[in-house]
Design a protein that fits this description.
The protein has 325 residues and is mainly alpha-helical. Helices cover 71% and strands 0% of the residues.
């Protein structure tokens, strides 16, 4: 087991290096620091002095990869690549183009993102699997038919419709919860109820239908027919055998999402005014803060790879065949 985890971690290293190099090329080769300065300064005729000052204040005045004017190891360390890309591997995000500490902002904004994402993840998972099991139990009946129709209809509706409709109906028309905003402590609950509810409802269509397909595939397998032949009830077959054996495809979509919960939701946080990592990324894009965008791209890559590793490890817990291999 330990060797299996180490092997998966070693596989992740070249992937992270590749992502980091590609990100560096996009931000500093395709889009040079001079271009960043012109975009950030926001004027048509920028003087060379203003560009040089902007680059110096943010550390973009150094050579990209190799510093000929330096001596020893500083020829490699006193460069943009080392300062802006290599340090990301030790989670040293540096400062934003606005002068703020990116690491502090990430740590502060992680909790509002988790406050939305974690309840949506847990409540949604319970609701989706329950509805899928219900449709699988009443398969080939009106319950299953109309359940699939409802899922397809909900899949066809844009997520923005749920957000805007929920804000109008629950927040404005019924005046049950605030439309947007955020507060710390216990007062945050009233601001989180609506986005969590909308997050769960908007995912019912695609997730419940996907889980239903998984359960129906398992129901038609030989071990299920054998269990029925032994006299087991349909409920026991469904919950004791089908659900357990369907865990591998379910884990594929579930475990990989867990690390990404820290990244927040771009659309949800922007519409509801939640100061999480999603809105942090959107604000950085709107303000042309390239340092924050680079940090969030790298952090997202790390979390996604962590999710893949967690998925591989979870396979060994539910499937003995993987452990034997």
């Amino acid at each position: 087991m330990g060797a299996y985890i180490i092997r998966r971690l070693l596989y992740a290293i070249p992937i992270l290096i590749g992502v980091n190099v590609i990100t560096f090329a996009l931000f500093f080769v395709v889009n040079s620091p001079e271009d960043m300065a012109r975009v950030h300064l926001g004027v048509k005729r920028v003087t060379p002095e203003a560009i040089a000052k902007w680059k110096q204040e943010r550390g973009y005045d150094k050579p990209l990869l190799y510093n000929d004017s330096a001596a020893g190891a500083t020829r490699l360390t006193d460069t943009i690549f080392f300062e802006k890309s290599v340090k990301l591997f030790v989670f040293d995000f540096g400062r934003s183009d606005q002068g703020r500490d990116i690491g502090y902002d990430i740590r502060t904004r992680t909790w509002p993102s988790l406050a939305i994402a974690l309840p949506v993840f847990l409540a949604g998972l319970a609701a989706y699997i329950t509805l899928a099991l219900l449709m699988a139990f009443f398969r080939a009946t009106y319950v299953d038919f109309w359940g699939v129709v409802l899922c397809v209809a909900m899949m066809s509706i844009s997520g923005l419709f749920y957000i805007i409709g929920g804000q109008y109906l629950v927040g404005k028309l019924w005046n049950l919860v605030p439309i947007s905003g955020y507060d710390g402590g216990v007062d945050a609950v009233k601001f989180l109820v609506l986005p969590v509810l909308i997050g769960v409802v908007s995912g019912i269509g695609s997730n419940a239908r996907w889980y239903r397909t998984i359960f129906l595939e398992e129901i038609n397998r030989d071990y299920v027919r054998t269990a029925r032949a032994k006299g087991l009830s349909e409920l026991r077959v469904l919950f004791r055998h089908v659900l357990q054996n369907a865990m591998i495809p379910i884990l594929t979509g579930v475990v990989v999402v867990i690390p990404l919960l820290f990244m927040g939701s771009l659309i949800t946080e922007a519409f509801f005014g939640i100061p999480g990592l999603g809105s942090y990324t959107i604000d950085a894009i709107n303000s042309q803060d390239f340092a924050v965008v680079r940090a969030m791209v790298f952090l997202g890559s790390v979390l996604y790879i962590a999710g893949l590793i967690m998925t591989d490890i979870s396979y060994t817990l539910v499937d003995p065949r993987v452990r034997l291999e």
